[in-house]
Design brief:
Shape: flat
Radius of gyration: 33 Å
Largest sheet: 5 strands, antiparallel
Strand order of the largest sheet: 4-3-2-1-5
Structural class: mainly alpha
Number of helices: 26
Strand content: under 5%
Helix content: 55-70%
């Protein structure tokens, strides 16, 4: 393994060294290509464009090379798996991001995509071979395209970053990219070939490709989400074949700027009418593609997908009067579609409890929307209100009460655990702490920190008590005697004191542990260890004072949220000490996105970042339980899940981490179904933009 890692490092160093050679060579090819196009141009205007581009290249050549090399060096490091600063792939522009972009950012996104597509197609074979060997060098048994920090999209993104910082006109930069894309691909082709040969000489074999079994329906449909090849080339999805909806048009639709800047629509009715027709046409295209994507979303049951298509006429009619309704999260029509699709994620089959009532209600909504009449837009708010109210009323009162109690309990648990961490820090800062045995240190920073934290939280209820009667005071007052009596070297020198303090220490320890209902078996195990230390100290005879001993090197376990048995019952706590023999997911519902992409996202995302509303499948009691995160503690240490069947469960962040690592928890949806459908529409518009003005 060490040899392979050395090969990986050597490969990256060689890649950066060779980059210093091929970047100047690529700039020479670009200059020659611009000169050739300049000479072959027939129109004076076309010739001048290439003259300007060539002249600007001559002026900025050295700066381009320097910045490109620096940007590529940074990008290669950031592109490694597990880094926090992974560069954004050009193919992943979302619907929400598009609305916030400026016109120049939209154009830059399209430019980047076009160059990346050409370069990736040129190096398609070579990058597959290099990626497979780099995966082996990193200890992987199967190929992960993201594990290649030299992949084409990383190089192109670095080039875009370098060019963006230059003081040149956007048209000049575009001409450089369009003219130099093919030669850039050829340079990378040679680089990948040489690096693969280097790894081969170092004995690094190519990793294999994992076979991901997908349902036939998903592999056969043309509506599946966009995939990618090993080189990072985006593949077409077939969301729509009409190239009308480009990224620029969609952006203009979202920002409400589809009219010509030099025209005055109010004074030119014909022009305004044409612009309005364009708006309605584009809005209708977005609605159609959005619903088409939802119909292919296999996280939703087939009957639900079929019912939702019944909303299409009503949504198309809304688009004619309010073309941007789908981008407005507060629009009643958008909110109703969001609510239905979000709730439908709760059901994994038609026999689930509550599905029949849900299905009847959705059919009723569609029937209402399909009735003719001019008041269509006015029907959505009432339907939305009725739907939300019915979902709330469908929950039994005892379930509402139980979930309220669970949240209240979890808040208290987190508060106590956070305070216990501070208490443990106080204990560690004592001068006599490090010299005590490990079993005592772990007890103090674990259970006893919980005892003191609980007592401090309840001290407000002890108003009027004397200092000696306040538990929090008594529980910390015994620390000097406890730590001293557990040290054989010093306690054995003063047996009278040892005999005097032991009863008080043991009595106070038992009282404190009882106050948090600490498990009796675990408590007795500690007391046996402690009394063994006391007995050894009492029986030890020393003729002279002992020499100082070095502190124990045994470290305490990290503090983890702990619950009292009653709290665990109230919150349906799921213990994180799960046996590794539990079965993982085998025949559960397929994921909507490629597992390679989702695995990379989950690896970079900590459980504390899973937002409330996320739907997951959890393996429990021999089956997959579909549930939703309904609450997360303020500090992200505890989570509460609820299933549509009324079952709830809570777990710690560590437990959630463990389930993900063991493939016993899978994220079904961390974004809304409608949001993801609109993201796919945006990707299709992005693809149309590439095809509309291909190189």
């Amino acid at each position: 393994m060490d040899t392979h890692l050395q090969a990986f490092d050597a490969c990256l160093k060689e890649a950066l060294a060779q980059t210093r050679e091929w970047v100047p060579r690529w700039l020479d090819h670009l200059h020659a290509a611009l000169k050739e196009k300049e000479l072959s141009a027939r129109q004076l205007g076309d010739k001048q464009v290439f003259v300007d581009a060539r002249t600007a290249l001559e002026s900025h050549r050295d700066l381009i090379a320097t910045r490109f090399l620096a940007a590529l060096g940074d990008s290669v490091g950031n592109a490694l798996p597990g880094t926090d600063a992974q560069p954004r792939r050009a193919r992943s522009v979302s619907f929400d991001e598009l609305e916030l972009m400026g016109d120049d950012q939209v154009q830059e996104t399209v430019e980047l995509a076009r160059v990346q597509q050409i370069v990736s197609m040129t190096v398609d074979h070579e990058v597959v071979e290099l990626t497979a060997r780099l995966c082996t060098a990193q200890g992987m048994h199967s190929v992960n395209a993201e594990a290649n920090p030299l992949r084409a999209d990383v190089v192109v993104s670095a080039l875009m970053k370098a060019l963006k910082g230059l003081s040149v006109a956007p048209a000049v930069r575009s001409r450089w990219l369009q003219t130099g894309a093919i030669s850039l691909g050829h340079e990378l082709q040679g680089l990948y070939t040489r690096l693969s040969a280097l790894l081969d000489r170092m004995g690094v074999q190519a990793a294999g490709y994992a076979v991901i079994q997908l349902p036939d329906a998903r592999t056969a449909t043309a509506d599946a989400p966009m995939g990618r090849r090993a080189g990072g080339v985006p593949e077409e999805t077939g969301l729509g074949t009409d190239a009308l909806l480009t990224l620029d048009h969609l952006h203009q639709l979202l920002v409400g700027n589809l009219e010509q800047p030099d025209e005055e629509p109010l004074r030119q009715p014909g022009t305004a009418g044409a612009s309005n027709a364009m708006v309605r046409t584009l809005a209708s295209e977005v609605v159609s593609l959005m619903l088409k994507q939802i119909s292919a979303d296999e996280r939703l049951l087939r009957p639900v997908r079929e019912m939702l298509q019944g909303m299409k006429p009503a949504l198309l009619q809304v688009a004619r009067t309010d073309p941007r309704f789908f981008a407005d999260r507060q629009n009643p029509a958008r909110r109703l579609l969001d609510a239905i699709t979000e709730h439908s994620l709760a059901y994994t089959n038609e026999q689930d409890r509550g599905y029949a009532a849900f299905s009847r209600q959705v059919r009723g909504i569609i029937d209402t929307l399909q009735k003719p009449g001019p008041d269509l837009a006015d029907r959505f708010p009432g339907l939305l209100q009725h739907f939300n109210r019915s979902q709330t009323e469908a929950m039994a009162p005892e379930q509402v009460k139980a979930r309220g109690l669970a949240v209240k309990t979890l808040v208290r648990v987190e508060q106590r655990n956070l305070l216990a961490e501070r208490v443990a820090a106080e204990f560690r800062s004592r001068n006599d702490f490090d010299r005590s045995p490990g079993v005592v240190r772990r007890f103090l920073t674990g259970p006893w920190a919980q005892v003191v934290a609980q007592a401090r939280l309840e001290v407000s209820n002890a108003t009027g008590l004397g200092t000696s009667e306040v538990p929090a005071m008594r529980y910390t007052d015994i620390l000097p005697d406890l730590l001293w009596s557990s040290q054989l070297a010093v306690a054995s020198l003063n047996r009278p004191r040892l005999v005097k303090v032991i009863p008080t220490v043991l009595r106070t320890l038992r009282e404190g542990l009882d106050s948090i209902d600490y498990p009796r078996e675990q408590a007795e195990a500690f007391f046996q260890a402690l009394m063994g230390l006391h007995e050894a100290a009492y029986k030890t005879q020393r003729a002279e004072p002992p020499q100082d001993v070095q502190p124990s090197e045994q470290f305490e376990d990290d503090m983890e949220p702990w619950m009292q048995p009653a709290e665990a019952r109230d919150t349906c706590f799921m213990d994180d000490s799960l046996p590794d023999t539990q079965p993982s997911f085998v025949d559960t519902q397929p994921l909507q996105r490629d597992w390679v992409d989702l695995k990379a996202e989950m690896a970079a995302q900590s459980p504390s970042q899973l937002s409330v509303g996320t739907w997951v499948d959890v393996w429990q009691d021999g089956q997959a339980l579909r549930c939703q995160i309904t609450w997360a503690s303020p500090h992200g240490t505890l989570f509460l899940f609820a299933g549509v069947n009324g079952r709830s469960l809570s777990m710690t962040r560590r437990g959630l981490d463990r389930l993900i690592e063991q493939d016993k928890l899978r994220v079904v949806a961390d974004h809304g179904v409608v949001d993801e459908a609109l993201d796919e529409v945006t990707r299709q518009a992005w693809l149309n933009s590439i095809k509309a003005d291909g190189l």
